[in-house]
Design brief:
single chain, alpha+beta, 5-stranded mixed beta sheet, elongated, binds histidyl-adenosine monophosphate
């Protein structure tokens, strides 16, 4: 598990702000669920045969001997929250969440044991147009973040009857080809045979080319739904690749499944995964409520988001001060300035003026306020633009009481829209 340090977090915050803005515009509302849940939620929700439940959960007994798990994903928790809170008093809810998730996986580039997701869930939405809206929302967010080499892969997993029919035929084929399967795939036959389609083993991948295909078992209704979605994606000019082996790693999916990958990511290439889960809420006792969603892995996203999002905001005013009186005046002034959208650095080092000027220079401060004991005694300060051209630094002495003069100086010199700041 890793720390996220201030220098890294500039990009995180810029990226998060863009995503939140997009979600606000689409009228998707935030939900925050606990990081710790009862283990049963994930076992039932994600599925006993999945790697996440079998191998990757951080599970322990609490002091009341109840089995608890650090959430490995957000969908099951959101479904639980919707059920527990009376479907959030509406038949349809568009929700988003962001936060840490935990999976006990082998750490490597793009794969951590504590990682972060931004997830979006449309609960109570059945129409294929909601599939389109969810996919296009993910696409637009990733485009806005200037993700390069982005690919969208989609598939349809049909409904539960389609999959049961397919499983009969696929299991029979797996038995016939058992000797040629890799060990991992053999282990999956009883627990979760569909996941074999997702194998990374090249020999099994080759072998699977001759296996029966899930799309051959989709009912007419499922096929029609899937065709509509593909057509609409074309209309919206969202390019996609159909991947008939895309089954995703969690058991709750039905119909549409999709993943966004980026060639810029290396082996852990999936930056966003999602799909429809029409049976999950019913299985959890919440009644028939169809839903669809996705989650973006933030560590992977940050790796490939555009360089422009690394930009930090420079300091607007650096307050240089020396002497006890000057220091308390400087604190008073920094509080006064905090009502404006300005980055203020208050120097509390007590070091010489020249050292403080050097520090202001180092952090690219646009302007400085200087308060020495002389100024402090007169209850005033000096403000000026911080550059080497003395003629144009607009130096001015202002009384600490004179808010009007201070505001005028800020307005004139720091490109600030005052009316929006107060
Ligand atoms: P998921 O595919 O398991 O789906 O995870 C979504 C994304 O989280 C992945 O595409 C990846 O970017 C990131 N991720 C997963 N595991 C790790 C890890 N160990 N380290 C770093 N990043 C990781 C879900 O979690 C579903 N709940 C998505 C969803 C929402 N489906 C419907 N609604």
């Amino acid at each position: 598990m890793t720390d996220l340090l201030p220098d890294q977090l500039t990009k995180w915050q810029n990226v998060e702000n863009i995503m939140k803005e997009q979600l606000l515009r689409a009228n998707v509302r935030e939900i925050r669920t606990p990081i710790l849940e009862m283990t049963e939620l994930f076992v039932r929700g994600i599925g006993e045969g999945t790697d996440v439940v079998n191998k990757e959960m951080y599970t322990f007994l609490d002091r009341g001997e109840r089995s608890c798990t650090l959430r490995p994903e957000g969908t099951a928790s959101v479904a639980r929250a919707v059920i527990n809170n009376g479907n959030l008093k509406g038949t349809q809810n568009k929700l988003w969440y962001m936060g840490p998730m935990f999976r006990y996986e082998r750490p490597q580039a793009g794969r951590q044991r504590q990682f972060h997701q931004l997830g979006v869930e449309f609960i109570g939405y059945e129409s294929p147009n909601s599939d389109i809206q969810i996919i296009s929302l993910a696409w637009d967010i990733l485009q806005k973040l200037e993700i390069s080499q982005l690919n969208l892969e989609i598939n349809s997993l049909g409904d539960s009857t389609d999959r049961e029919n397919y499983k009969i035929s696929f299991l029979s084929w797996l038995k016939d080809n058992f000797d040629n399967l890799d060990q991992d795939s053999r282990n999956r036959i009883d627990k979760n045979p569909l996941r074999i389609l997702d194998t990374k083993n090249p020999n099994t991948q080759k072998l699977l080319k001759c296996a029966p295909k899930l799309n051959q078992f989709l009912s007419e209704k499922s096929l029609k739904r899937y065709s509509f979605i593909k057509e609409q994606l074309k209309v919206l000019k969202i390019p996609f690749i159909e991947n008939l082996n895309l089954v995703r790693g969690l058991d709750y999916y039905s119909h549409t499944a999709f993943e966004f990958t980026s060639g810029a990511l290396g082996s852990q290439a999936t930056v966003c995964g999602g799909g429809r889960y029409d049976d999950l809420i019913d299985q959890m006792g919440g009644g028939k409520i169809p839903a669809i969603g996705f989650a973006i892995g933030l560590e992977r996203l940050i790796l490939i988001a555009g360089k422009v999002f690394e930009k930090t905001r420079d300091t607007d005013i650096y307050i240089i001060n020396k002497g006890q009186l000057a220091e308390s005046l400087a604190i008073e002034l920094s509080r006064k300035l905090s009502k404006y959208d300005l980055i203020i650095e208050l120097d509390l080092s007590g070091s010489s003026f020249s050292r403080q000027f050097k520090k202001a220079n180092k952090c690219n401060a646009k302007s400085v306020i200087v308060i020495g004991d002389n100024e402090a005694n007169k209850k005033e300060f000096l403000i000026k633009l911080f550059n080497n051209n003395n003629e144009s630094n607009n130096e001015l002495s202002i009384s600490i009481e004179d808010n009007v003069k201070l505001e005028e100086w800020i307005l004139k010199n720091l490109n600030l829209n005052i009316s929006a700041q107060k």
